[in-house]
Amino acid sequence: MSALYPPLQPHRQLTLAVEPPHTLYVEESGNPQGLPVVFLHGGPGAGCVEDHRRLFDPARYRIILFDQRGAGRSRPHADLSNNTTLALVSDMELIRKHLGIDQWLVFGGSWGSTLGLVYAETYPERIHALIVRGIFLCRQQDITWFYQHGASRIFPDYWQDFIAPVAEADRHDMVAAYYKLLTSDDAETRLRAARAWSIWEGRTLSLLPCDNAEDLFSHEKLALSLARIECHYFLHNSFLEHNQILNNAHRLADIPGTIIHGRYDIICPLDNAYALHEAWPTARYQIIDNAGHAVSETGIRDALLQATDFYADKFYTSA
Length: 319
Description:
alpha/beta
């Protein structure tokens, strides 16, 4: 069992204006002369937390975290305007250039894996290596599985709470129905829907129940950004072409990579990772047999720490 690296604080924090109305929160920690790594959080809309820094050896990594448009400490909070996948890819390039980085390691889980893969397929020359876990290909079948029928059969009791805010006549298209609620003019309607959407995700996150999942995912700020931004993306096919990630996977061929996925992942079933590895066979591929989707699960955390250490050994050279 591997422990996270010790807690550390950022030595640099900045706000970066991108396409209006958005301003991004960006931070750096670890070794300013280390191997640059950018952490891509999930959701979209979840934001970064302190433990995300602890997945990287601070003596060897220049650790860059940022909150994507509308998430975390970026502003305006939960805003949907000009919030698309290609916009986030452009934001990553702006951050890279602003920080004076030529190449970096890209690390992303869940939606972060989606964004990392799209970025890597767009700018393969900017990647030292790519670590992705809890693979989310954002195909229509993946959205249907979790928000229409599929996961509902695994968690039928939790599903009843998820569908409760939606009128029975509208339940044939849960994403569209939720979008109406989450963009309502009434603040109470928005918050009730956001909490139900967010709690559904939190309850299904790990193989074994997490005691504080409901408290965490019902928090107003997280629930609103997570639910509104996720629903906005999923209603619009995540602003991707049909099967875009797999169709463009040949662009990953020369990138060192690691794919990590929990066998019992209900949010993003294992066939996502399997299909990605079929299309990107040169990547290292690890199935974690005692895990679901959560980065906090022991097997996934251990595999991620091993991966970040592996690439530090491979690419870091001290001055």
